[in-house]
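Hi R.,

Here's the chain you asked about this morning:
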Amino acid sequence: MNGAVRIFLTLVGAVALSATAIFLVVMPMHRHTEENNATIEERRVQLVRLERVSARINDLQKEIGRLRDALAFFEDRLPEVKEIDVILREVWLIAEAKALAARRIQTQPAEVMSRYNSQPITMTLEGPFRGFYEFLLALERLPRITKVRQLQITKSPTREGDVQVDLLMDIFFEKKS
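And the predicted structure, written out as tokens:
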């Protein structure tokens, strides 16, 4: 064989060997590397999502703790069933101290809630409007939870500045265990 043909065949063999190496080794490795890069990017995105969720979970745990503290605060302000008469007496004394005459006080059946009960009380009071206003302020300052649900104020026909008040209030108390 002559020298030119030998060089040509060597070159063709080298090109064929290179092409075979590219198709059998380099291209599969390149595809494998691209798949790995795609997997890494997907996992990075998942990691960012997990970090966000983790931060929200920590915030939610703090919020749950804050809400538990608030619930404990309100539960501490709920009297026991046996204390309802004490609170009624306090309300009566507040009314008398504000120059209000209690014409009627009537309890209704207790309303059962999920974590507490409510004792509705209807009252009819008469006296000066200023005394009634101070009575409401004193109710707000009671250490126990109360709520005025309905209120009707009418002017007294006999005395100027006096009112007759019909109100429905709730006293909240602990549920029996």
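Helices lie at 3-76, 84-97, 129-140.

Let me know if you need anything else.
M.
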